[in-house]
Write a structure and sequence with these properties.
Layout (H helix, E strand, L loop, with lengths): L2 H22 L26 E3 L5 E3 L7 H8 L12 H13 L7 E4 L4 E5 L8 E6 L3 E7 L3 E6 L2 E6 L3 E3 H11 L1 E6 L3 E5 L8 E6 L3 E8 L2 E6 L2 E6 L3 E6 L4 E2 L11 H11 L11 E2 L3 E2 L1 H10 L9 H4 L4 E3 L9 E6 L2 E10 L2 E7 L3 E6 L5 E6 L4
Antiparallel strand pairs: 1-2, 3-6, 3-9, 4-5, 5-17, 6-7, 7-8, 10-13, 10-16, 11-12, 13-14, 14-15, 18-19, 20-25, 21-22, 21-25, 22-23, 23-24
Length: 381
Amino acid sequence: MNRKPFCLIIALVIILWTPLTAEASMPMPDLLPMGQLDLNKEPYDGETETEQEDADGEEETAEKSAGTAQDILNDSIGSGTILVSNKTAEDYELAYERAKNANWGYTNLGIADVSDNLNIRAIAAEDGRLVGKLPKDAACEVLETDEEWVHIKSGNVEGYVSKDFLLTGVSAKMKAEELATTIARVTTDSLKVRAEANTDSEVITLVPRGEELEVSAVEGDWVKVFLDDDEVYVSGEYVEVSAELGTAVTMSELLYGQGISDVRVDICQYAKEFIGNPYVWGGTSLTKGADCSGFVMSVFKKYGVRLPHSSRAQANCGTTIKVSEAKPGDLIFYGKGKTINHVAIYIGNGQVVHASNPKTGIRISNVSYRSPLKAVRILYD
């Protein structure tokens, strides 16, 4: 064998062997599953607070901002975190909490993948009793699944949905990133809603504690929110802003008291069939789209009651009653200041059904989600 090539081979073996030997002598950290969260971070609780130092060494606390699941995943999952050194059971519990909150509070997130509403049934069968509806893009907790059906819980509704129309796993997380809506939850007993972002502006209405308003924008100390189809302002001091996913709406029968006629029950049940359908300004279609008065007009038309296509005009029909005296099937009116601009159907249990705005469509709200101006009785029984 030629001496020169042989020496080159020996030298190459020595070069390669040296780092391998060094690495073999180093202790290998425990192996954990792909996707292990960075446990050195504090558990994510819906908000993050960061501190920054300026050039002079002074520290400033940045404004709190709602993190997204993708932010957390980007920060803490990757090839660099596959190998993690020894962690305690408490560390794993913290990681679980972070992972749970990264899914907006859902442990096993599901998203309705339908064009309108996904039926929720009491049992895993197509003829099962309907107990609720999961609107398009709404979220749920996946409890268990089989080849055809998924057992879910969403809002106050628990039941079974078809597996073919529910996104889960990574697909659900990716979809949720697109869908999360910023809401402002009222933290005071009676929040003033104003036309403009200043305390001299007209007070349009009052909203009670716990109500959730969809956020359009944050402008300094003021939050611009949607109030049905208007954009209005509330003080940021009296709301908590966070990202939320939609949930199911219950279809449980309402608790009607004595003296409620069958026609009133029928009207309310009929109106609820269209929950989740679109809001269209000037529309009268219960399936393709209606505005607030168009929705009311079309629901009552089925029962032989003709109403004008205007909330102000409808307020002049029938007999004016106290809001506290409203029965299922009566109309509740709302306004901007003292001017009526919205109408809903009272369905009992302190709730109304109405065509709210282009983003939420037809939905159920508390009767006091904004201050009612008037109630009118159309049905005489």
